[in-house]
Amino acid sequence: xxxxxxxxxxxxxxxxxxxxxxxxxxxxxxxxxxxxxxxxxxxxxxxxxxxxxxxxxxxxxxxxxxxxxxxxxxxxxxxxxxxxxxxxxxxxxxxxxxxxxxxxxxxxxxxx
Length: 112
Description:
By secondary structure, this protein is mostly helical. It has four helices and no strands.
């Protein structure tokens, strides 16, 4: 007669191995690496700003419904983060991709 501990031991070993593999993810595909966005062009960014941002931040970025961006000290990275996630009443993702890089470069030139 078999000991009742053998099936229980096998169950524990299989369960532990399954749990370990689930945590390890040996066969999961790796996340694709995001290609670095090309640097923004502040000239094109001025056009994007006029069409998308000036209604709230003012034509000269000195403020309006939205805060003043002129002289704010924001970097292009700061601008990209805020536009991507939104802030206050500004919704996320008003522009994306190359337009986002361009408008961020433009606002960074005003922020100095």
